[in-house]
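Researcher: Quick test of sequence recovery. Tokens follow.
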């Protein structure tokens, strides 16, 4: 194998390695973006769960108040 052939092979390998490095950097950036999106979705889900829990607690409170008022009304009508 002559020197020129060896140098061409090294150039070829260098180009392939540079392409591989670029692909790895691109995947790292994509992974970072996906992680940010996932964290954002997790945060939104947690906020939704808190909101739903608050709504359920409010519904239970309203139901209790209505039941209490209905009980008072039925006592009033029995008199």
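Model:
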């Amino acid at each position: 194998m002559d020197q020129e052939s060896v140098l061409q092979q090294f150039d070829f390998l260098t180009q392939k390695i540079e392409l591989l490095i670029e692909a790895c950097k691109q995947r790292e950036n994509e992974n970072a973006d996906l992680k940010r999106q996932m964290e954002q979705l997790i945060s939104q889900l947690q906020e939704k769960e808190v909101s739903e829990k608050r709504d359920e607690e409010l519904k239970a409170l309203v139901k209790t108040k209505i039941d209490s008022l209905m009980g008072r009304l039925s006592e009033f009508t029995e008199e």
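The radius of gyration is 34 Å.
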